[in-house]
Amino acid sequence: MEKDKSVFPFNEYEYLLQHFINDNHLSFQQYLEIRQEYINQNPHLWVFTLSNAAFSNFSITYLIGARPKLSKPNKEKDKEYSGEYDLMLDTIKIEVKASRAVDANSKEPLYMKALSSNTKQQFLMNFQQLKPKCCDAFIWVAVFRDKILTWVMPSKDVLNHPLYSKGQHRGNHGNEGQLHIKDDNIRQFDKYLLNDGILEQIIRSAYKKNA
């Protein structure tokens, strides 16, 4: 193991499993059972292997795929649209932000430091380039190894939230900011968390509250 030069997907765990199979400590059927159990427990681990651009597209596709009433904006639906938000529900403008939950103290690749939703480790999810003045509601998507959490917030609630940092970049005149969700503040957003409700109804409620 100490002499092994690991590289994904031929890493130290694959090396150990093959060693156990070769020495008859593990049957191939047992290996398949272990593999399937691990996949079942970590169904979203593959998302941590995506590039940042691919991950951004994943969050949009994930939301539209399960909720066909959501659609991508264009000039026909909004003549003034110039890419400042991501989705629409009727005429409601929605900005989507996504992040992956990883061990804040690890320097390993994302797929190695991906966390489960019941983790006790420190994590940091940075929702940046937020533009509350350009949308009616936000949908935040947080991906853990085993679960995807979704928050729906009126844009005014984001703009006025004490954790919201205005002026992320110089010269934006307060039009863009960021907000960090961490292990020690995530419970502050429980009231925005999508549980058993219908997303479209919650978005409309957020829009009414925002108005």
Describe the structure.
There is one protein chain. The chain is of the alpha+beta class. It has two domains: 12-41, no CATH class; 45-210, Trna Endonuclease, Chain: A, domain 1. 27% of the residues lie in helices and 19% in strands. The strands form two sheets. A four-stranded mixed sheet has the order 1-2-4-5. Strand 1 and strand 2 (92-100) form a beta hairpin. The radius of gyration is 21 Å and the shape is elongated. The model has no long low-confidence stretch (mean pLDDT 89).
Layout of helices and strands:
Layout: H1 12-22, H2 28-41, H3 52-66, E1 87-89, E2 92-100, E3 124-130, E4 137-143, E5 148-154, H4 155-159, E6 165-166, E7 177-182, H5 199-210
Parallel strand pairs: 2-4
Antiparallel strand pairs: 1-2, 3-7, 4-5, 6-7
Short structural description:
The chain has 211 residues and is α+β, with helices and mostly antiparallel strands. 27% of the residues lie in helices and 19% in strands.
Order of helices and strands: HHHEEEEEHEEH
Straight-line distance between termini:
61 Å
Let me know the largest β-sheet.
4 strands, mixed
Total beta-strand segments:
7
Treating each run of at least 4 consecutive H or I residues as one helix, how many helices? Answer: 5
Mass-distribution shape:
elongated
| Regions with little confidence, pLDDT below 50 for 5+ residues | none
CATH level-3 fold name of the largest domain: Trna Endonuclease, Chain: A, domain 1
Work out the radius of gyration. 21 Å
CATH class of the largest domain: Alpha Beta
Widest beta sheet: strand line-up: 1-2-4-5
Percent helix: 25-40%
The chain-level mean pLDDT equals 89
Summing up helix and strand content along with how strands pair, one would put the structural category as alpha+beta
In total, the number of domains comes to 2
CATH 2nd-level architecture of the largest domain: 3-Layer(aba) Sandwich
Strand content: 15-25%
